[in-house]
Design brief:
This protein has one helix and five strands. A hairpin with a 4-residue loop joins β1 and β2. 10% of the residues lie in helices and 30% in strands. The longest helix has 9 residues. It is mostly beta strands. It is elongated. The chain has two domains: 36 residues; 52 residues, no CATH class.
């Protein structure tokens, strides 16, 4: 099972729901089950991301943008690819 640790915005893959973070040392941390529907916070400021869409001629394109700092992904012709790239951290 994958979990998102809210204390340091990391996704970990473990068998049991964690109660503390080995990286930052926080105890009783907020943990969210990470699924394909989960949207990670901004890697720079921790803000929430918002899906964006537009068209160029007849071609739609999609991207995700942080509501706080304006960080954004590149444009993609597929909505799911844009979300996947927003969640990618390497």
């Amino acid at each position: 099972m994958k979990y998102l640790l809210k204390c340091c915005s990391r996704v970990i893959d473990v068998d049991n729901k964690p109660i503390w973070c080995i990286k930052c040392g926080e105890h009783d941390i907020e943990v969210i089950e990470f699924t394909e529907e989960t949207l990670l916070p901004c890697p720079f400021c921790g803000g929430d991301a918002m899906a964006q869409a537009s068209t160029w001629g007849a071609n739609p394109f999609y991207w995700y943008e942080c509501e706080d700092c304006g960080c954004m992904t590149a444009d993609f012709s597929d909505f799911y690819e844009a979300k996947k790239r927003w969640n990618q951290r390497n």
